């Protein structure tokens, strides 16, 4: 029998990747391309949807060519993506009417204030599981319709389509122009009712978004359409938002199991089973995935700036040449670094939800050097993750026994040791830290009958465990300093 492969298209915030998996679920090869981050104004973040499509297709083609893959041996492709990022395009021309507005973008804070003034916070939480914040797609769609010339007229004529990045990719990859998304992505839009699994008419009215723009919502493991490539039809068998895909790839199938992904941001998700549980501690309720007729929910804590703070050290401050260097620099300093960096460059996400916080550095003295700033920036990733885990423990009522990690920055051993120390919890790092791609590959494999959900548990291998070594007093004292620093960054901007 000829070999069968699954390819995961992983469209992230800073790069597009294509990842090749064999029939045992082992990762064979990966191709990656970064693309431009566009910052037109302070607090605005955009991507060019055409560049996203181009880099995604190029990595797919490179993967096939560089590994001499016979196109017939590709059994299916899955799509996983940066979530919330919003594209609106003209369905007649296929051209976006504006750049993609990225999840980190803060321009719609004023629309959120209007929604809050109308006392919609309770309704939003009960029906979408979210908080009113510029993070989510709904207010971004409204902004595009309100600000792009002729957008409202085009929308009234039913000429416009909205999509998160998964939707944009599928529409472009399928000859039939399939306009679709999955439950996990829809649950990040602020306009999807996660109780009844339908677009929410009340919120669409409030935001003045016509229903004709919206994609059909399907389970995450589903035959969405076919990618027509060089005359061959490859089934698109899975779609999931990248954080939910990582939860699946980490085999967090049981209620109470959680993972934290250390990418551009940090995203802690805990499976809460088929029951929708609302947070009392600033976390979000989201759809983890849909398989056949079942929908599973998760609690989520999202930190906007995680690994992105390391990129800031490299590209903004220019005090390091590469992210990897931070491990060596941090190892040479004690973890009693008195400096705190709060990277609130895009406000603060969970559990604070402050669109007006700004980044700050605290504790500088005459002997502070650039290495202290590097170490403090790395530490901030662990402190922010601790904030999320404490909120999650309060909501679930049980302490987290061990934390599963993945994403680019989890390869930093000093960061993982500090995370274990500051949490006082064991950390499990899998052999394959590309859990996002793996998760959607499995969702795809399930659709086409290549795998079962149990195979994921069997195939999972732990590469390393980190156990806490820090004493209690030091841990408490360090974390107290962090909370003080957070307090001082909150509500900084009054725009
Ligand atoms: N060794 C490292 N130490 C600290 N941060 C790292 C390291 N390697 C990568 N990163 C950070 O992790 C992020 C990349 O992780 P990745 O999972 O690829 O992100 P994304 O999917 O969000 O684009 C970057 O922001 C980078 O700065
Ligand atoms: O692209 P990532 O991996 O940083 O993920 C972004 C998240 O999906 C935003 O919610």
From TrEMBL:
One of its GO terms (cellular component) is cytosol. PROSITE patterns: FGGY_KINASES_1, FGGY_KINASES_2. One of its GO terms (biological process) is glycerol-3-phosphate metabolic process. Sn-glycerol 3-phosphate binds at residues 13, 83-84, 135, 242. Inhibited by fructose 1,6-bisphosphate (FBP). ADP binds at residues 13, 17, 264, 307, 408, 412. Residues 259-446 form the Carbohydrate kinase FGGY C-terminal domain. Keywords: ATP-binding, Glycerol metabolism, Kinase, Nucleotide-binding, Transferase. Belongs to the FGGY kinase family. It catalyses: glycerol + ATP = sn-glycerol 3-phosphate + ADP + H(+). One of its GO terms (molecular function) is ATP binding. Residues 5-249 form the Carbohydrate kinase FGGY N-terminal domain. Key enzyme in the regulation of glycerol uptake and metabolism. Catalyzes the phosphorylation of glycerol to yield sn-glycerol 3-phosphate. InterPro entries: ATPase_NBD, Carb_kinase_FGGY, Carb_kinase_FGGY_CS, FGGY_C, FGGY_N, Glycerol_kin. ATP binds at residues 13-15, 264, 307, 311, 408. It comes from the Bacteria. NCBIfam families: glycerol_kin, PRK00047.1. Pathway: Polyol metabolism; glycerol degradation via glycerol kinase pathway; sn-glycerol 3-phosphate from glycerol: step 1/1. Its EC number is 2.7.1.30. Glycerol binds at residues 83-84, 135, 242-243. This is Glycerol kinase. HAMAP family: Glycerol_kin.
């Amino acid at each position: 029998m000829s070999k069968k492969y699954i390819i995961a298209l992983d469209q992230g915030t800073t790069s597009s990747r294509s990842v090749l998996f064999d029939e045992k679920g082992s990762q064979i090869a990966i191709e990656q391309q970064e693309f431009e981050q566009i910052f037109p104004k302070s607090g605005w973040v955009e991507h060019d949807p055409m560049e996203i499509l181009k880099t995604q297709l190029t990595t797919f083609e490179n993967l096939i060519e560089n590994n001499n893959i016979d196109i017939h041996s590709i059994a299916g492709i899955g799509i996983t993506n940066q979530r919330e990022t919003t594209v609106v395009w003209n369905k007649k021309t296929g051209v976006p009417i504006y750049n993609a507005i990225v999840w980190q973008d803060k321009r719609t804070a004023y629309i959120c204030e209007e929604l809050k003034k109308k006392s919609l916070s309770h309704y939003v939480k009960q029906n979408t599981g979210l908080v009113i914040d510029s993070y989510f797609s709904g207010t971004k769609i409204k902004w595009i319709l309100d600000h792009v010339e002729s957008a409202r007229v085009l929308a009234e004529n039913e000429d416009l389509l909205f999509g998160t990045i998964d939707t944009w990719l599928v529409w472009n990859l399928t000859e039939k122009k399939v306009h679709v998304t999955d439950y996990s992505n829809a649950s990040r839009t602020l306009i999807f009712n996660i109780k009844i699994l339908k677009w929410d008419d009340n919120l669409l009215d409030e935001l003045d978004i016509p229903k004709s723009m919206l994609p059909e919502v399907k389970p995450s493991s589903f035959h969405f359409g076919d990618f027509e490539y060089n005359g061959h039809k490859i089934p698109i068998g899975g779609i999931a938002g990248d954080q939910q895909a990582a939860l699946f790839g980490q085999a967090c199938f049981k209620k109470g199991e959680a993972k934290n992904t250390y990418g551009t941001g940090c995203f802690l998700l805990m499976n809460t089973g088929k029951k929708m549980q609302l947070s009392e501690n600033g976390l979000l309720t989201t759809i983890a995935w849909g398989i056949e007729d079942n929908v599973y929910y998760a609690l989520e804590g999202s930190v906007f700036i995680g690994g992105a703070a390391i990129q800031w050290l490299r590209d903004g401050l220019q005090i390091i040449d590469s992210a990897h260097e931070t491990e060596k620099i941090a190892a040479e300093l004690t973890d009693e670094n008195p400096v705190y960096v709060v990277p609130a460059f895009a406000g603060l996400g969970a559990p604070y939800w402050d669109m007006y916080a700004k980044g700050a550095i605290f504790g500088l003295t005459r002997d502070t050097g650039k290495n202290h700033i590097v170490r403090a920036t790395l530490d901030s990733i662990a402190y922010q993750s601790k904030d999320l885990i404490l909120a999650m423990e309060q909501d679930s009522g049980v302490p987290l026994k061990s934390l599963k990690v993945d994403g680019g920055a989890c390869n930093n051993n000093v960061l993982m040791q500090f995370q274990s120390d500051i949490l006082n919890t064991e950390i499990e790092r899998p052999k394959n830290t590309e859990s996002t791609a793996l998760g959607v590959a499995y969702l795809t494999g399930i659709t086409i009958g290549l795998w079962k959900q149990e195979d994921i548990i069997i195939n999972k291998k732990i590469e390393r465990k980190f156990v806490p070594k820090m004493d209690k007093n030091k841990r408490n004292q360090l974390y107290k300093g962090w909370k003080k620093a957070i307090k001082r960054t909150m509500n900084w901007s009054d725009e």
